[in-house]
Specification:
mainly alpha, Non-ribosomal Peptide Synthetase Peptidyl Carrier Protein, Chain A, two-stranded antiparallel sheet, 5 helices
């Protein structure tokens, strides 16, 4: 059983998947920073200086005026955190777009590789067809008689 597990782990697909997960986690941190540190301040500026990540509505409970989202949650109040939700949507859209571009690039690279292989095969001189070989054998047999 231990050998089977070692074989499973050593397969290329598992290692590729592990690398993908690690890179994906690092990329998610980059996108989260991009949205939180660059995009949200611009949106907040457009909204009149409001801190976009702290945009929320109190559904029930007491929250001090001007409190951050985290402070509002610490009071135990039920809050509708629209800013955090919109930030998550922006994160998703950026990640989905980058994955789309990556898949598109890989597909174009594969197409180019297949195309170059087809061109290499087309450039090779074509040998005689099966019919040509049979006709040559027939003619050789006819001469030998």
């Amino acid at each position: 059983m231990l050998n089977e597990f070692k074989d499973f782990i050593a397969k290329g697909n598992v290692m590729d998947m592990a690398v993908g997960i690690i890179i994906g986690a690092a990329f998610t941190a980059i996108v989260t920073s991009l949205v939180g540190d660059l995009i949200n301040p611009i949106i907040g500026l457009a909204m009149g200086g409001t801190d976009f990540t702290n945009l929320y509505f109190v559904l029930s409970g007491e929250v001090p005026a001007g409190a951050s989202l985290e402070a509002a949650r610490e009071t135990g109040a039920a809050v509708f955190a629209i800013g955090a939700f919109i930030m998550a949507i922006i994160n998703f859209l950026i990640i989905a777009f980058v994955v789309f571009m990556l898949v598109r690039f890989v597909n174009k690279a594969k197409e180019a590789a297949v195309k170059s292989e087809e061109e290499a095969v087309a450039d090779e001189p074509a040998g005689p067809s099966e019919l040509d070989v049979l006709l040559e054998i027939r003619d050789s047999l006819a001469k030998a008689k």
